[in-house]
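Lecture 7 notes: from sequence to structure.

We start with a single chain of 455 residues. Read the sequence below before looking at the structure.
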Amino acid sequence: MERKNNMNVAVIGAGLTGLTTAFYLKKAGIGFQIFEKSDRPGGVIQTHHENGFTYESGPNTGMLSRPEVAELLEELKDDCTLEPADETAKSRWIWKNGKWWPLPSGVKTGITTPLFTLPDKLRLLTEPFRKKGENPSESLAGLVLRRMGKSFLDYAIDPFILGIYSGDPHQLVTKYAFPKLYNLEQDYGSFIGGAMKKARQPKNERDKKATGEIFSVEGGLGNLIDALVKNIGPENIRLNCTDLVVQKNDGYYTIGNEPEKFTHVVSAIGGYALSELLPFIGKEELSPVLQMNYSKVAQVSLGFEKWEGIPLNAFGGLVPSVEKRRILGALFLSSFLKNKAPEQGALLSVFLGGVRKPEMAELTDDEITQIVKEEISEMFQLPEFNPALLKIFRYRHAIPQYGFESDEKMRTIERLEMQYPGLILAGNIRDGIGIADRIKQGKTIATQLTNKYDK
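Now the structure, written as tokens:
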């Protein structure tokens, strides 16, 4: 496709956001260059193959929660293949009083489950009739306590938040961390009533692509990155850019000592690194973005050639904070995705740390190994702990927390983008943290830039 000569975009960061942005810029014929500080594209997404196990050091799965995900995978179908999770992934376990319990998936199991108290179960019947909240900065914990009760917070929402954000529902603002949930109450006055009404609304063919299914790609998520790089063109990605600095000039931007001029800069890096990347913006101006907290997490990929513990017939198990265990939970990847472990084996991904226990991610390998051995052996009734694979990955800035600074942060981003035309502050500092959110954001940015210059 012929390049649009009036536009040249610098994309900072070759993670999923940056690669998706570049993929659609190339399709539109817009000039771009990706700058990445590390020696490989993909950000935290990386797939490993070892001794019959296929494991990830980063996100393990995505969710088809946005039509943009299905659309991107359709466009990349010649280079990577969608792998939907099987039915096992629909079941989630919650740890309570020394035992795993399935999270209820319907009315009957909701009534009989020991996870929630009887008063809270009865309270749920009146949830559709409660007044909607009026505080746009209300925490997720505050909203759940107001509408559902403490046992739902302790044994549904808290472990759910640990699984997604490795965070604390008392510190996450619903409007930004879970906008769909916030909008259910604001638009319909109720979670239950709103969900039922939305389910009855007709969907167009594009909306139907957002099935909500858990997915990976065949061979691992690294193949998605490889497919994007192939279609973008490796020559358009500059790696090992260790001293990335954007300079603002009169009507254009430059990157480091590069002579090339850029009309636009799309930043797709962590908020904590923005002050070094954008020295023309004062730290005080960036303060609301820089203040955003990140969870620290240690992820342990654990592979067994022969699994002898309890059957792992679920997506994974989450551990509520009130249970005082030393792990956040585990995903049972070989239970719902193909070729993750030998036929009689198992592949788990175990998580430690998070906002409440960041020190866990700083422990030595031996200390983490011992904790995982003790916790997994007891919780999954393993007669012997003899993994064929044990790999530890640490993330100092694992997941951004959309906390009480979020409103001011978003106003700051909007103000800076207006103050510095051509600058786009993207990445997981806004618009969600999941794979689907990153793909949607990247496509949206590329579409907006394309539309602007097609007028």
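Residues 435-454 form the longest helix (20 residues). Keep this in mind for problem set 3.
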